[in-house]
Write a structure and sequence with these properties.
mainly alpha
């Protein structure tokens, strides 16, 4: 319990001192996987709360038929895909960070965004339409802080200078698009293959071969 509390304190320290905090996490402290996984799950949970409990003035539509598990999966999966893509790219650019380091950096970078997202959801239920623009600023700030912390953490994790980190981030975006394209093509081909097998089996059964 004491270790977990210390890790929470270091998480707060990392938010305000990203380079020093991520350096400690990368080289001197043991990764707390329950905390890392918990932050990703909290991200999914916050998205579920946003989906169902955001104020009416900020809600474009309320798709109550969508499963909360589906919302969580579609929220967490892009981050997992980005982490895998970044690790794959940085292995080609002499990056020293491991896949676990990338997940750790992303999880810690998400922490302030989670707080701001919860504050945003709460305020949308009490503010007026004229005040909504100010509340949306919290979302912009959340993404900005997340991007800054992610950049700092990846620089430390892979031991890159800022210019090289920017190059690998651009390459990561390209790699992510390629992986999504390959995955989509694979799913389409597998769907057609199973459809063909099902059609052939139905035809054989109808003709009474078996």
């Amino acid at each position: 319990m004491r270790t977990f509390v210390a890790d929470i304190k270091h998480l707060v320290y990392t938010v305000f001192h990203p380079f020093e905090g991520f350096y400690e996490l990368r080289f001197r402290r043991k990764r707390n996987w329950p905390l890392i996984i918990g932050l990703f799950l909290m991200m999914g949970a916050v998205e579920i709360i946003r989906y169902y409990h955001i104020g009416m003035i900020a809600a474009s539509s309320r798709a109550y038929a969508i499963s909360p598990l589906f919302v969580m999966a579609t929220t967490v999966f892009p981050f997992v895909l980005f982490a895998v893509s970044n690790w794959s790219v940085t292995t080609l650019f002499d990056g020293n960070g491991k896949l676990g380091d990338v997940f750790m950096v992303m999880a810690y970078a998400l922490a302030p965004k989670l707080v701001l997202d919860l504050l945003f959801i709460g305020l949308t239920n009490v503010v007026t339409l004229h005040e909504l623009a100010l509340v949306y600023a919290l979302t912009v700030v959340g993404y900005g802080v997340f991007a800054f912390l992610l950049f700092c953490g990846l620089c430390v994790a892979h031991e890159y200078n800022p210019a090289k980190c920017i190059v690998t981030l651009l390459a990561t975006v390209v790699a992510t698009i390629i992986l999504v394209f390959i995955g989509a093509v694979y799913l389409i081909l597998m769907g057609r293959l199973f459809g063909l097998i099902s059609t052939v089996f139905a035809e054989i059964t109808r003709r009474g071969v078996f």
